[in-house]
Amino acid sequence: MKEFVNRAPFGEWLDAYERVYLSPKSIANIECPNCRMRFLNLIFLSKTVDDQRSRSLFWCGSCLWGLIPIPATPPPGGRRVTAGTEVVPNYRIVVDDGDNAT
Prior knowledge:
The protein has one helix at about 10-20, and strands at about 40-45, 55-60, 65-70, 80, 90-95. By secondary structure, it is of the alpha/beta class.
């Protein structure tokens, strides 16, 4: 498997997350900030399907970089997954480099 280095600033990852969060159905049209492929994933992992308390997991299926899981309320149309049924790769976490403004 080819190893990818993350070259995208943390702020670009936050921007991509926000775009997908606000419009989950647009995920197939949004490029990864790092490798520019369109293989982004955003799931909301919770104990039950109806639970509003969840953790969002956001990563690229191509370069396997993404954001650290954070607490989040799933948006309408967001992909909800029950804990224990998820298939999430061991992706690398993008580190906040202090450059959150893009």
